[in-house]
Amino acid sequence: MDNITALGGDVYEIDTRMAGYSGITAGYLILGDRPCLVETGTSTSAPVVRDALTSLGVGPGDLATVVVTHIHLDHAGGVGDIAGFYPDAEIVVHEKGARHIADPSRLMASARMVWGDRLDTLFGELSPTDASRIRALGDTGAVDLGNGRTLSSHYSPGHAKHHVGLIDSATGDLYVGDAAGVYLPQTGDLRPATPPPDFDLATALDSIDLFRALGPQRLLFSHYGPVTEVQETLERSAEELRVWVDLTRQAHAEGMDLDHAVAMVRERTRERYAALKADEATAEKFELLSGAPSNVAGIMHWLDRAQP
Fold first, then answer.
1. Residue 17: which domain range?
2. Which pLDDT score is estimated for 308?
3. Is the separation of the CB atoms in 163 and 178 below 8 Å?
4. 186 within a domain of the structure (yes/no)
5. For the Metallo-beta-lactamase domain, which residue ranges apply (predicted)?
6. Cβ-proximal residues to 103 (8 Å cutoff; 6+ apart), any chain
């Protein structure tokens, strides 16, 4: 299948084809003794992910574990559907997200407030997962991949209060979710993901420091793909956060409303990203992945709490 890329170490990147786009959200299959899916993508992507797993030889009774880095709908919206396709798989999530996987009603209501009618085309509906199948992680935890191989989870809030990073003992791959921002392989651009309501600068920078300290061999971005320049990329993640926060703080101090703040930050960061100078489709994809309105709104929300 053209949406599967072998990354070595029995790891396969699956393009979940979110909202019909390619290269927006990746799921990863670790095909060890106990096959593990990291990130499900959206609910509407679940059949795409299932077909990819089938083509890799993983049948309904074979998937041992599904892990999500956090419960935002582009990462975990398909959990309920995937749990249905793979009745023996354990669903692993941070304890702060577990109840929303069991009962998604509040999560879906707030998502609908943010996205309105676009919710259905972008994400679809997160279906509930039987609570008995969910394993809630604390600050650290481990997933057994079989044959002594483990996926260790490390609590990494800042982007979301239910976010974990995951490191594979066999490959040194670190699944960074959204905590290191979003990466666009076509242009090598990296930009922060700071949506409301959980963004917090100090916590986000601490999570990047934690990722550095784990000494990964490779970063696997949910958006999108593998990066081997580990330390340089994490350095840049922190720098991007500081740039966006400094500019938004300036707008906030000048009393700008959200629209004016977004326009100012967009204007002053434009030169940082090759994607925005590329063709329209690439620019549109980058905005969908890490939209300036969502990023600035998240930082403004944090500033309002931090400096009322």
1. 4-230
2. 55
3. yes
4. yes
5. 24-223
6. 128
Please check whether residue 308 lies inside any domain of the structure.
Answer: no
**Cis, bond preceding 197 (omega within 30 deg of 0):** yes
Reported as a single tens digit per residue, the pLDDT across 20-57 is 889 999 999 999 899 999 999 999 999 999 999 999 99
At 223, phi and psi to the nearest 5? -125, 100
Give the relative orientation of helices 258-269 and 292-306 as an angle to the nearest 10 degrees. Answer: 120
**Taken in order 13, 16, 21, 24, is the CA torsion positive or negative?**
negative
Q: Which residues contact 22 (CB under 8 A, 6 or more apart)?
A: 3, 15
For 188-232, the pLDDT digits (tens) are 999 999 999 899 999 999 999 999 999 999 999 999 999 999 999
Q: Determine the 3-state secondary structure of 95 from DSSP.
A: helix
Strands (E), 68-139: 90-94, 134-137
CB 8 within 8 A of CB 171: yes
Provide the total of helices (H) and of strands (E) in the chain, helices listed first. 11, 15
d(CA 18, CA 2): 15
Residue ranges in the chain modelled with pLDDT below 50: none
Q: Whose structure tokens read 């309904």?
A: 60
Distance, CA of 99 to CA of 122 (rounded, Å): 23
| Amino acid (one-letter) located at 110 | S
Q: Are 250 and 204 in contact (CB under 8 A)?
A: no
Q: Is 270 a member of any domain?
A: no
**Polymer length in residues for the chain:** 308
- Separation CA 93–CA 136 (nearest Å): 5
Q: Is residue 302 part of a domain?
A: no
Bridge partners of residue 189, in order along the sequence: 184
Q: Which amino acid is at 60?
A: P
Specify the number of domains making up the chain: 1
User: Which one-letter amino acid corresponds to residue 102?
Assistant: A
